[in-house]
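Protein in question kept in full:
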Amino acid sequence: MSLSDPDHDLVAAELGRDPTPAEAALFENLWSEHCAYRSSRPLLSAFDSEAEQVVVGPGDDAAVVSLPTHAADGEETYVAMGIESHNHPSYVDPYDGAATGVGGIVRDILSMGAYPIALTDSLYFGGFDREHSRYLFEGVVEGIADYGNAIGVPTVGGSVEFHDDYEGNPLVNVACVGLVDEDRLVTAEAKSPGNKLVLVGNATGRDGLGGASFASEDLSEDAETEDRPAVQVGDPYTEKLLIEANEALIDEGLIRAARDLGAAGLGGASSELVAKGGLGAEIELDRVHQREPNMSALEILLAESQERMCYEVRPEDVDRVAAIADRYDLGCSVIGEVTDGNYVCTFEGETVVDVPAEFLADGAPTNDLPMEDPEEAPRDLPDVDPADAFDAVVASPNTASKEWVYRQYDHEVGTRTARRPGDDAAVMAIREAGTGLALSAGAIPAWTDANPYEGARAVALENATNLAAKGAIPHAAVDCLNGGNPEKPDVYGGFGAIVDGLADMCRDLSVPVVGGNVSLYNDSAAGPIPPTPTVAMIGVRDGYDAPPMGATGEGTLLEVGARGGALGGSEYLAQVGGTDRFPDLPDDAGSTVDALATVADLDSTLATHDVSHGGLAVTLAEMVTDDVGVSATVADAEALFDETPGRVVVETTDVPAVEAAAGDLPVRDIGAATADARLTLSVGGERLMRDAADIGDLRAVIERELE
C-alpha cells in the first residue's frame, strides 16, 4: 500500500507542504484501517462502555475494571483485559504470526502496569478436511503454545472453529487478562513536557515492516511468499525478561506512561503516547538500539520488531530505568523527550518527521460506505435418522474435543487456574480479593453467517452462559470484530449487523464492552470470511470452587432455559443439509443469565454444562465420563440439536431448589446420571446408546487426524 491521493492531499493541506517519505509512510500506516478504524469507527458508538466497575475504558492499550471483594480481608484489585487479532500474519507464517500475536497482547497488559495471569485463544480455519487448513492449524497452535509456555502465562480457554470461508484467511484472536491495583496503574497518556522517552527491550530490526498497512488489505494468492517480510519474529525469552523488568519498573514507580510497540512500531507507539496527552515529542532515531546495520529512518520508525516498550520517564529516573533494563539483559535507549510542540523525528542531523501528533494519531477521516442488509434463509429441514445425525454432529471438528489443542498449553503455570480448559469457562483464583475470575472467549461463525445480527447476540449470550454455568456473573467484555472487505456493501452490511447485535446483547446483559480490536479486509481469492465477533468476557463469583462439567452419577438431569424453536446456524444443518431461520433468544437475557448462575451455585448442584454448539446432543455426550453415564429423553431432533444459548443442563439432588432458583425460566426433567458410563438417549421414540469409549472415539477426530 501507499498513501492514497485523497489522504496525501489532506496531509499536504495540514502541513502546508508535501510530506517527506518518512511522514508519508507514517501516515499510510497510522491512517490504515488496522490502526485508524476508518470503516468501523462510525459503528462503534453502539457499544456501552461505562459502568461502576470500569476504571479505564476504550482507547488505551488495554481496559481496566475493578473486581468485587469477597474476602473479609480482601484487597481492592483491578483486572486489565485486552484482545487483538493477528490474522494476516498467521496465514503467511502461522507459527510466528500466532506467537507474536500472543506477545503483543501480553505487552498491552504490561503497558497498564498489570502482571499478565491468563490468555485465551479463539481460532478460525478453513475446512478441517483440507490439508492447508490443518497445516495452518498446527502451526498456529504450536506458535501460541511455545510463546505462552515460555513466558509463563497460562492459556486457559478459547475456541476453535472450522468453516470453509476461512480457507484463504484464518483468524487468530488472542485475549489476555492481568492484575493491577490503583497505585500501580499506568496509562498510555504522556504527562509532562521535559520527561524522557525511553525504549526498553529487544533491538530494532527490519522485521514486520509495514505490518499495519499489510493488515489493511486483502490477502493475495501469493501472500505466503510475497508478504513474509511484514510478519514479525517473536522471542518469548526476551518477552519474559520484559515482563519481569516491567514489574520492577512499576514497583519503583519509575513509569509515567507506557505504550507497547505493536502496529506501526516506534512511530505508532511514540506518536500515540504523546498525542493522548495533547503533547508532542522530539525523537532522535539514531539513538534507537538496532540489531541490523544501515537501517534507514523509515525502517527504524516503522519496523514492528517485537518485545519492545516505550516509556515516559522523569529525567531523574532515567539512570535507574537503564539499570533495571541492564539487570534483565534488555536493551535501553533514551530516544528523546516529551514536548509542547509537534511530533518531530531527526535522523543523522536531518528532520525527517515534523507533524502535529494529534493529527497523525487521530486525524484519519472515516469512511462512509454503503451497506446491504443480510437475508435470512427459509425453513427447509431434511428427514434424517437421529442416530446418524447424532454421530455426525458429535464427531464434527467444531464440536469435537479440543484436548489436542489445550494439552499443548501450560494452563496451570502461575498456580491460579481453578477450573481448567475443556470446561464451559476457565476460573482463575484471585486470592487477593477472595474472588473467582471466570473467563470465556470465542464466537460461532455458523451463527453469524446464518444471521449476523441475531448470531452476534447469541455469541454474547453464549459467552455469558458459559460464565453462569460456573456460578459467575458477567462483569465486562472486550471484542475482536473480524470482517471482510468493507468496500463490498454486503460484507459491510454483515459487519454492521454483528456490531449492533453484540452491542444490543451486551447492553441487555448489563455487560460493559470496555475495549477491543477491529480486523477488516479479511478477504482472499477464496472470498470474504463470515462476520466474526469474537467476545472475551469475564465473570466474577464468590470463591473459586465451581461445579464441574462431567456428571457425577448421583442426581437428576434438568434442562434449564428456553429453547429457540429453530435450527438456523446449527451444526446439525451443517452436517445433514437444509436451512432454517435463527432460533429465538430469551426476551430478558440478563435475568436468564443471573438465574443460571444462581442455579449453578446451589449446594445441591453436582454438575453444570451449557447447551450451545451441537445442542443437547453434544452437551449430554460431554457429560458422560469413563465412570458415569447419562440417560435422557427428548421429544425430537429439533429439541436434540437446538443450539439456543441461555440454557444449561444441571445435575441436581434437589429439583425443587433448582425450580425455585430458575424463577421464570423453563425447567425440564430430561433424565438422570447413571453408573454405567453410557449415554442412553430416547429421541421421539427412537433409542440410541453410545458408551464412553464410543463417544470418546467420535470426539477424538482432531487428535486422530493430526497425530
